[in-house]
Records
---
Amino acid sequence: MHRIKGALLVDYGEPIRIAELTVEEPGPGEVLVEIRASGVCRTDWHAVTGHLPLPVPLVLGHEGAGIVKDIGSGVQRVKPGDHVVLSWIPNCGNCRWCILGRPELCDVAITAAVNGTLPSGVPRLFWGDDPISCFSSTGTLADLAVVSELSAIVIPDYLPFDQAALLGCAVQTGVGAAFRSPLAAGDTVLVIGAGGVGLNIIQGAQIRGAAHIIAVDPSEVSRRLAEQFGAHTTINPLDEDPLLAILDLTDGLGVDVAFEAVGQGSLIALAFNATRPGGTTVAVGVPTPNESITLNAFAFPSQEKTLTGSWYGGSYPLRDVPRLIALWESGQLQIEPLIQRRYSLLDCPQAFDDLQAGRGGRSVITW
């Protein structure tokens, strides 16, 4: 057993506390990782508020990178000393969705996430004598994490941990959503929400060759970052009707592909209404589970619009993390400018407060 500190949610709506915890040694097929950096993601906040009803007490965090300290029996892909980025969907490779090439929908991984355990179903974290849950089979806002071998993706030693951590969620989700959409070179693209994921949709669209990228966000800081990452036009929805502004920019036609990266039903509807006939709207942000949207049904057959979703950017981390690193090495993918604030683990509650305040970019906890 190892004594550690971690960001613990004791119950929904309660303040995040930094608690003394213990973590067991890794079991078969599992890996013990010393966390060196972890991003602060809005999805974790959904758990804090209870909108994402994961079992509590819960160690937060799912966007991390670190060093392998120990391995359980049967582990073959990683060894002690390896630098790794962690995937919060440790896809099994054997369920229906994995076989169909949709590993982001893996039954085993989703079941483990809902139950707050590793894919083995065994808890490795304890608060006192009581077993506790970890967020999405990772729990990266802690000194150490035991994860499935399937979650640990080896990365080069020269990739800084704070940047590597963002490959675990924000970059994979955003760039992946752009890459796996119908977006084609020369298209006009809309991105609603220029946070950590939205900024990566923007740069993914730029890499894919979008001719005009429009970003909508009420935060001045986020709009400036959107321009830095490749947006050609930004819209402040507090100053003007965003739908009218988008239609004006596109001669009344609408955009070829629209992405919603906030997770609000009304904004998904806005993205859909701003999409041209025959175009595609992609919902990327994570709404609360019971949220619904209202759309004009006639628009589906009469305009042949498509509304689809993107979970984790449709990514397969073993394949996509190396590809993203190659784009970073070539200078096409920006990661360091995403990081606008760095905190210690003890300052994690403040990091979540700043997230809620909409200060822009990504916050990273570093060790």
---
Amino acid sequence: MKTLFEKIIAREIPAQIVFEDDLVLAIRDINPQAPVHVLLFPKQVIPRIAEAGPEDHKLLGHLLLKVAEVADKVGLKKSGYRLVINNGADGGETVPHLHCHILGGRHLAWPPG
């Protein structure tokens, strides 16, 4: 069964795409938790960060480097942003496909949750 993000990658479900290359896709979150809330995920399915292996290091590096590019593209470079990767139910994971939340556009308090 395809994950939600696989369906978006396949264009089976519409999404507001912010960035795309051969390895990753970034979309606006449909339930934003900040004025700017973008999800960035690899096109290759890795269920969660805890399941990534040594063979995924190049993809994970690419994903993290694209965070800064996407954050700049959506206007967060100067003001800053928070990067969140949820892992497992207690971590808030709702889609079993590794993804980064890029949150910004307002002051984000600490600690979260």
---
Amino acid sequence: MKKFSIVMAIVLVGALFLSACQPETIVETVIVEVEGETVTEVVTEEVQVATKTLVFSSRLFSPPAEQLFFINEIIKPFEEEHGVIVNFSIIDDATLLQQAELQQTTNHVTTDIVVSHNGSMPQWLDAGWVEDLTDVVASWDDRTFSEAFITDTNRDGKQYFLPVGADVYLLLANNKALPYLADGVDLDAITWDQYAAWAAAIAEGEGEGKVCITGIPSKSWVYMFGGTGLSYGAGFPDANSEGAMGAWKVWETIGKAGGFVPTVLNIDSCVDPMMREEAWLTVFHNARAGQVFASNETAFTLAPAPSGPAGIGSIAGVSGYAVMKGSANYDLAISFLEYLTRPEIQVKLAKGTGGFIPPVEEARDYIGDEAIDEVINKAVLVLNNGVVSGVPGSDYQDWGAVKACFDDVFEDTILPGLDVTQERLDEAEACIVGLLK
């Protein structure tokens, strides 16, 4: 009878079994002795080997085109280099905070990286749900984060958030509006009074208004008005000061001229009305302005937001990356943040998502001369030289309700073309103050 002895040398693969798996080829070398003769056979098979998954939840890059760019052009190269999966999802700030509370209170942390708006950062810091990244940032010697947002991203001398996607407001005009601009007006130095007169001239010449604002309640009107208010020396949010009155008078002029697009109360974003040429004139978020401008740069003219007696006013926002306290993949999360905040990646990301401001100083060296680069440069000009304010949403019980205080003045006074009265503005201010925490 033949005797067989089999010795198997097997390649063992260690893996951390998480939520995602990828196929991997495993090689087994089989050595078989048959009556003193050795036969070697190589056997291959494909098995499922677990791959590390980084869970990344963001309130930024919500438009579908931005998501697609972020996934394909930013995330995928990192995944391929590190052999990992980045589970990317869009979640609004309020829901993101709710999820964090559940994970932290149950000691079951499944999220690794979050992206929060600066208006929500104080809530994260008060709760202690994000890691201190001070030493991590100190170890990177090739990038400097903008000082403009340090009060939001830092606390007590420590850095918790890494800024990304800064934004201000820019003026965008369809070139069909240019013949109505008064002689001698420099668009790069236009005032709010000149803007209002321009809007009135367009309405008279075209027989209908062409100015776009977001008329649907609780959208962006509070920020559009807020920039005007800052230009006149008002605070934010401020409805009834002398500076605020000056700002309301600008919008009163446009309302009395019938200067708003007829569908204004149905508009939740000025991107589509501007692209359809239903609207010709707006002052809005620089990334949204960039989205329209880059779609057909020969059809539009871009400029900084208008100025008032106090300068160019704009609400300035920023989002920030943070590592969730208790992340199971801390080292991988840090590697991903190091990659995301590289100057060249910051510019690539800014250009691919409509023209956000890259808040890493060294990133400016990578800005070129394409249409989208013009958006970034104009936005940087406003940020560096304007009178800007963040969004103090965490100071109020309900920021959406604060927005409504301004929405109501637009709908009941500005749009119908009525006179703005101090009495009406005092009511709006009482509405705002009553919502403070």
---
Amino acid sequence: MAALCWAVFDLDTAAAVLCVLLLGLLLHHLRNMARMAAWARQPLGTPVPGSIGVWDYIFACLSRRTRDAQERRELLARNLARFREANQAMPDGVIYLSQHHTIEWMNAAAAGYFGLNAETDLGRAITTLIREPDFVRYMQADDDAGQMEPLILHSQRQDGLSLAIQRIPFGENLEMVLARDITQLERLDMMRRDFVANVSHELKTPLTVVNGFVETLLDGGDEFSLDDRQRYLSLALDQSTRMQHLIEDLLTLSSLQAGSEPAEEDPVDVQALLGSVLHETRVLSGGRHQISLDAGTPASLLGSQKELHSAFSNLASNAVRYTPDGGSIHLRWGVKADGSAEFAVEDSGIGIGAEHIGRLTERFYRVDRGRSRETGGTGLGLAIVKHILTRHQAQLDIRSEPGKGSCFTARFSPKRVHPRA
């Protein structure tokens, strides 16, 4: 450019033109530098300005780099959002802590378990928010190996809630606190322990009686008369029969609990079933009670003949066992206007207090243990009834008042009831 100026213009003019051109080029660079500085102050995603010459190439490179950075930023944001959504969807409580044990993030489950606020409690020390002594000691304990055993915490904020809490170190002096609701597991474990203890106790008593009579007869030799032997053997037989009934009920209950398939859909003649139950009830009563039956509308009930017979018979036999001599027992069947049906057993027996009704269908639950053993009950009858009715989409309703008798009603949905002419 300088040579061209010297060739076209004289020396002074060429020098002046060259100065003007250099000044223009300087202003061009200054202007584009100012535009680049202004663009750098704008939010991410602002379009890169255009230009000519070398600045157009520079701006194009910056635009491509900015676009790549923006795409990576959006990818990280999407991954972070999915990560948080996954943590929120977890049934377990999750809390992320800083190196000073302040809360950096928590999911909704953790907030619910510990009574925290996922917005206002961020940045606060977890031990100032959850003040239960066992939890505070657990959080303050050293965990150099990073394998601290979980803490079983029985919450003081929510009655009956049991949590398994574990600290998990990660990153640089960061920690994650996991909380899992084990309330149901503890209840199941308690039920298992109670079940084993109850079965052992129920079998131990009659077995002890049988062993005692057998040992007495063996040790006595010919010292006992024939009548005494008959009486001892009869009592031993009663106790062994009781054990047999208990084992049969346990097998029945186990089979019902293990059965995942729905109940059978065979039509069961209700009137014939009621006649069989009435006969068994009268035999069990031995004439000690006034027993009546209202067979109601003839109908077929879809289900298992064997299971329905067991349920109806258990309800009736319970009425016999807990109704004093001379009392009345009334069996009733009826089809309602909406197509549903009810089988009810009403007695004038000793009745049941309201505090016991909710637990009557638990295995081995007895209102009066001594009386239950005297009447030959195994403590499993109503548990069997409940499982049979559940398999038949039916419900058990219990109404009772001490001294005024009880009424046990099995209610069946319309889809299982088919009235007949």
